[in-house]
Amino acid sequence: MRLRRLLGGAALVAVLQAAIAGEPEPNVVLVQPSAAVVPANLLRLSIVFGAPIDGPVLSRIALQRADGTLLQEAFLQQELWSPDGKILTLLLNPGRVKTGLIAREQRGPILHQGDDVILTLDGRSIKRWHVDPVDGNGPVSSAWKLASVRPATRQALVVTLDGPIDGREADYLSVVNADDHFVDGRATLRDGEATWTFTPEAAWKPGEYRIVVRGTLEDPAGNRLNGHFETPMSSAQPAATDSIIAFKVLH
Question: Does one domain contain both 41 and 81?
Answer without folding.
Answer: yes
